[in-house]
Amino acid sequence: MSARSVDAIVIGAGIVGSSVALELARAGRTVVIVDRNSGPGQGSTSASSAILRMHYSTWAGVATAWEARSTWAEWGTYLEAGDDEVLARYVNTGVLAIESPDFKADRVMGLFTSAGIPYEHLSGEEIAEHFPYLNVGCYFPPKSPDDDAFWNDADGMVSALFTTEGGYVDDPTLASLNLLNAAKRHGAETMFRCTVTEITRSGGRVTGINVDNSLRIDSPVVVNCAGPKSAVVNELAGVLGDFRISTRPLRQEVHELPAPSAWAPGQVMPVLSDSDLGTYIRSQPSGAVLVGGMEPACDPLMWLSDGDLFDMNPTTEAYRAQALRAARRIPSLTVPHRPKGAAGVYDVTEDWIPIYDVTSLTGFYVAIGTSGNQFKNAPVIGQMIRALIEESESGRDHDRDPVAWTAPRTRHAIPLGTYSRLRQPNTGSSNSVLG
Fold it and tell me: Confidence class of residue 277 from pLDDT cuts 50, 70 and 90?
C-alpha cells in the first residue's frame, strides 16, 4: 500500500467540507479533501434550496446565521476571488416567517434584538398590505390534502416576523466550487472518486485514513464532513460510543412551480417560512418558485437505511401536498399536474441541530448532522471548526471547557458547546429543514 502524509484530512467535499478545507488551508496546514463523488457539492448540497434565514430558537443558531449572512454578502471578498471568477450570488429578498403554535416569534425577536438584526412583527392586515398576493388566512395545523379538513375555510388571520435581511444563494453547487477553488489557492488538494475504507488510529489518537484499500494517508487531524454518510465514517473511527445525538439519512423533496400569475414581471417575493401550512417557498431568478416541506406531523418522513439508495425523482404525493399548501398561501399559483423538482438526502439529528465537535478519538473531528438547514452557515462552519481544532490541538478539553468563537464580522460570541455530541436533544427546536 502506498502512503503519503498531510496535516489535515477532510472527508467530504460538499459545502461544509469545502469550507472546512479552506479554513484549515488558510491556517497554513497541508490539506487533502477526499470525496467519492466526481466533484464538489454533488451530494446533499446539490439538493439544497440554499435559503439564508436567521430565525432559530437558540442564541448560537441566530448568531451563527447572522454572521453567515454577512459573509455571503461579501462573498468575493471572503474568498479572495479574482475579478474573472464566476461566483455564486446571494439574493437578498428578505424573509417572512409566519407564526403558528409551532413557531412563536417572541423568543426569536428577543434574540434578534440581542444580535442587532432588524425586524418587524406584522399583523395579518399588515401582511396583506405589504404582500397583497398572499392569503393571510390561518389554517393550522397543517393537513394532508387527503384530509377533508384541508379544504376548510380559514380560521382567523396569521401574523408574521419579517426581516429585510436574508434570502437565498442562487447556485449551491457553484458555491461549493467557489470554496474549494479558494482552498486550492491556499494549497489544498482534492481526491475525487475515492472512498475512505479505514480510519487508522494509535494510542487513542487518529493517525489518518486508508483510501480504496490502496493508499494510506497519514495525518494527525481528520474531519468528518461526509453528510449522509457521516454515521458510516464515525463507525469506521469507532467514536459513536459517547454520542448522545445520532445522525441518519432522510430523503427530502423540493418542487418547482411557475411564477404566480398575480406577480408583476420581475417581482421578487421574500422567502416564506410558513409553519401555519407546513411549507417554505422561495422565488427563483427565473421567476418560478421553489416549494419544500417543513416536516409537519401529517407528512411521513422517509428515513433511509442506506443514503445511497433513493429515488431522485419527485413523488406525486409529496408534490401534491407541498404545492397545494403553497397555493393556499399564494392563490395565484398554478399547480401543474406533473411534478417538477428534485429529491436529495440530508444528514439529520434528533433535534435537527448539527454536531460540530471533537470526539473521543483525539484528532478526529465532526461537522455533521447539518439537516439541510445549515447550507447558509457553511462559510462560518469552516471558521468554527478551524477554531475548535486549533484550541483542541493546543491542549484544550472542549468537552469540559467549551470553546466560544468570536464571529469576525458581527463580533458576537458563539458558544460551540451548543453543537456538542454530548448534548441532550433540544426539545425547543423547530425540527425542520427550511433551506
Answer: very high
User: Given this model, what pLDDT does residue 265 score?
Assistant: 72
Strands annotated E in 23-111: 31-35, 51-52, 90-92, 95-98
| Residue pair 302/251 in contact by the 8 Å Cβ criterion | yes
Least Cα distance to 360 among 225, 247, 234, 273 occurs for: 234
- Which class for 213: exposed (0-12), middle (13-18), buried (19 or more C-beta within 10 A)? exposed
Residue 431 has pLDDT above 70, yes or no: no
Q: Which pLDDT tens digit goes with each residue over 53-93?
A: 999 989 999 999 999 999 999 999 999 999 999 999 999 99
What is the sign of the dihedral through the CA atoms of 381, 382, 385 and 390? negative
Tell me the per-residue pLDDT of 394-413, one tens digit each, with 9 for 90 and over: 999 999 999 999 999 999 99
Which residues, listed in sequence order, are joined to residue 9 by a DSSP beta bridge?
32, 222
What kind and span of H or E run contains 8?
A: strand 8-11
- Top-level class of domain 2-85+171-246+351-419: alpha beta
- pLDDT, one tens digit per residue, over 215-243 is 999 999 999 999 999 999 999 999 999 99
Structural class in CATH, domain 91-167+249-348: alpha beta
Which contacts of 209-217 are long-range, i.e. CB under 8 A and separated by 24 or more positions?
209/9, 209/11, 209/34, 210/1, 211/34, 213/1, 214/1, 214/2, 215/1, 215/2, 215/3, 215/4, 216/1, 216/2, 216/3, 216/4, 217/3, 217/4, 217/5, 217/6, 217/9, 217/32, 217/34
Nearest to 372 by CA among 434, 430, 414, 318: 434
Whether 433 shows a pLDDT value over 60: the answer reads: no
As a whole number of angstroms, the distance between CA 61 and CA 53 comes to: 10
Q: Where in the chain is the domain with CATH 3.30.9.10?
A: 91-167+249-348
Q: If you search the block for the grid coordinates 487513542, which residue do you land on?
A: 204
Chain region(s) in the chain for CATH 3.50.50.60: 2-85+171-246+351-419
